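Batch manifest line 292
LIGAND: uric acid
JOB: complex structure
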Amino acid sequence: MMIVLGPNRYGKAETRLVRVTRHGDAHSLKDLNVSTALSGDMERVHLSGDNAAVLPTDSQKNTVFAFAKRYGVGAIEDFALTLAQHFVDSQEPVRHARVAIEEYAWERNGALGHAFVRSGRETRVCVAHYDGSRAWVVSGLRDLVVLNTTNSEFWGYVRDEYTTLPETRDRVLATAVEASWRHTAAGEDGDGGDWDKTYEKARQALLAAFADTYSLSLQQTLYAMGSRVLTECPGVCEVRLSLPNRHHFEVDLSPFGLANDGEVYHAADRPYGLIEGAVLRDDAPDPGPAWQ
Ligand SMILES: O=c1[nH]c(=O)c2[nH]c(=O)[nH]c2[nH]1
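JOB STATUS: finished
ARTIFACT:
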């Protein structure tokens, strides 16, 4: 029997970076959570503790801060690619870099240029990979919370001896959308090179499809949402969605002599149905490491 080292990577997880840009009194703010992971010729450190190929995770964290100062922070996809390319191109033993970034949205608090309030928006995310010649970028969001008060049914499903769920022709449908979309072309969004524009288009497509799909199941809504992103965003070839079904149960008010005609609900937090799936173009290129 032989024991061998399997796939491995290492890096600094969750470097919290706030970058303030000051144009006179009008300041702007980027609030990020950056995770770097490097891989390559790392046998010796694992097998014998020889650290000669290891760029410390502390240096990776410092690079995040230094690059934020040196180059500024624009779209998170560009910042992630710049970091990934730097680690691979500057360190011979590093053959692959993965940089994942979460962005928390702030908006202005009133008219003052320096006052901000964390906005209730979803979290924007991206993951960039670079291997020395090719790049892969996945963008996305999580915690985009949506709810329809009607136009949702669920009936006609399998019944076995454990099925008690009543069929419904009218229910509340709610979810917290987690969506990721893979860009076809390495290192660009296929939409004029504007990551922010593609993000807004994809977000709008998700919202519009959730709102205007007459839903017979959350699975059907998931497919409609993924399809809409692909239709609206030409540079995107695959969308992955994870949709928790945030069940809203009509409360039985009859003990109190009250009717409940779709007016009072218990918003249950668990357990929840979890509907997940990918929607892609049939000519989508091989994803390589994009989803790792
Ligand atoms: O949209 C739904 N899909 C399901 O698969 C499911 N299962 C369930 O109990 N409720 C629902 N709702």
